């Protein structure tokens, strides 16, 4: 899956649209070629794992998972309707200033730790290596991951939308107050309105998981 152009979009039509790759390189202190290679590898690894039905945790960032899978009757591929969900890991949510209760933080942290596939610096470094390219060192892969999280945090806090062409886009949205029911006790409980990280899967990612 080629990355294409990864950009940070501001709401105003005349606002600048700096490359996400440039932002990562600047925050991480690495070259743009290495930043692009890391981002491509991150997108490819995440897409491949989601296509296999795995839950994917990107270190310090968040958890991706496929939901809405419906059996076709032969037990092979899911029918239309699969969607990719994203949940910010506690570190990322804290950096964004998105409030979580203690139980919510613990739950999010547990899900990130128990993901089927974890993409950390060591895994990312391996993913950047090919027959034609030496790839990143683990140290530079760690810088790239941290640079990605910092660049994403700064952009989202300013109200920008981060778009990784073909993979998907991230933005901050406000979730309305809700009333839910505890499945164990049957009691209703209300949750306050809150800000959340919204992820919208791109066409290529949606195609890959369906």
Structure description:
This protein is α+β, with helices and mostly antiparallel strands. 39% of the residues lie in helices and 24% in strands. It contains seven helices and ten strands. The strands form three sheets. A four-stranded antiparallel beta sheet has the order 1-6-7-10. α5 packs across α6. Residues 10-18 and 69-79 have low confidence and may be disordered.
Highlighted features:
210 residues, alpha+beta, 4-stranded mixed beta sheet, 10 strands, 39% helix, globular
Fold blueprint:
Layout: E1 6-9, H1 20-28, H2 32-51, E2 56-58, E3 62-67, E4 83-88, H3 90-96, H4 102-113, E5 117-119, H5 121-127, H6 138-157, E6 161-164, E7 168-175, E8 178-181, E9 188-191, E10 194-201, H7 203-209
Parallel strand pairs: 2-5
Antiparallel strand pairs: 1-6, 2-3, 3-4, 6-7, 7-10, 8-9
Helix pairs in contact: 1-2, 1-6, 2-6, 5-6
Task: Briefly say what this structure is.
This protein has 210 residues and is an alpha+beta fold.
Shape: globular
Strand order of the largest sheet: 1-6-7-10
CA(first)-CA(last) distance: 16 Å
Oligomer: single chain
Main structural class: alpha+beta
